[in-house]
Amino acid sequence: METLEGQYDWRNSTSGRYTVAINQWGRDESGKQVLRLQMPLRDDHETTAFSTTWNWDRKPEAVHAYPNVRLNDHRLPLALKGIRSLDVDVTWSMEAGAYGQTSGGDQGLNEAGAVTNVAFDLFLDPDPAKATSTTIPKYEIMIWMGRYGGVLPIGWNGGKAAAKHRLGDLEFQLFRGSNDHGQEVFSWVSNRNITNYRGDLSPLIHYIWREGWIEDTVQLGVFQFGTESLHTANRREITFDAQRVKMHLEPGEPKPLITSAGTSSRARAQHVFLASVASFVMLCSRIF
């Protein structure tokens, strides 16, 4: 087991498919964070793992770190209209306590005053050269799989969502806003914590361009999974354990977007328009 503590320490998996990084981009003197990896960092069957333990007792509204797994795929950057699927398979847990000494579940996290989330993080830009960064791309898309301590996404706006979408039995709400880098941030937030998930996330990404909020030619350059650590009370330790992380990009034509109501609002409008045109043509053919 190797422990990483440097602000931007990272390691590649054996095949280079993944990079695991501690990413303490908001670190201060109020606490610390460590990242644990089983070395060599294997990626058999495209799967890897990591764990992190942290405590920060200042600035409860500020992200101190985003330890994460990043997919290294030679096909990235890739235009959204060229992505068939973003398949993931993740299993994770979040508990209060040091590594190997956690307990209490959600109640323990509440007692520790944990403020944190678990999320996929994607960065996109019209310029492929910019898309592979995390600070200069025009767009950021987050998909929250879990949240604790009342942490809120950028653009919360009193809980008024810009849209809703379902993946199977899961409902996600979309919030929009801007971060400190001036990036437009789209955050899909699940209606419950999802500690085990296997499926395709691309419908959430394609929904955004199909609604006209970004262009389908925008390039996806960064695809990550991890946890944002914000705050605990009295330096109580929190441990996030990603026991299984698998991410796979499948190029190709995007799948049709289907929602609980059938299609997206834009797609429904297009359907109504085309149906009206078809009715008009049929009427004209009868008259003439």
Written account of the structure:
By secondary structure, this protein is mainly beta. It contains four helices and 16 strands. The chain has helices spanning 105-111, 128-131, 202-210, 265-287; strands at 2-4, 10-12, 18-21, 31-37, 47-56, 68-71, 78-79, 83-96, 115-125, 139-148, 163-167, 170-178, 184-190, 196-200, 219-231, 238-251. The strands form two sheets. Strands 2, 3, 6, 7, 9, 10, 11, 12, 13 and 15 form a ten-stranded mixed β-sheet that branches. A hairpin with a 5-residue loop joins strand 2 (10-12) and strand 3 (18-21). The radius of gyration is 21 Å and the shape is globular. Mean pLDDT is 91; it is low at 267-278.
Give a brief rundown of this model.
The chain is mainly beta.
How many DSSP H or I helices?
4
Characterize the largest beta sheet: strand count, sense, and whether it forms a barrel. Answer: 10 strands, mixed
Radius of gyration: 21 Å
Shape assignment: globular
Mean of pLDDT:
91
Question: Which spans have pLDDT < 50 for at least 5 consecutive residues?
Answer: 267-278
Number of beta-strand segments: 16
The helix content is 10-25%
Q: Helix and strand succession?
A: EEEEEEEEHEHEEEEEHEEH
- Oligomeric assembly: single chain
Q: What percentage of amino acids are in beta strands?
A: 35-45%
How far apart the termini lie comes to: 80 Å
> What structural class results from the helix and strand content?
mainly beta
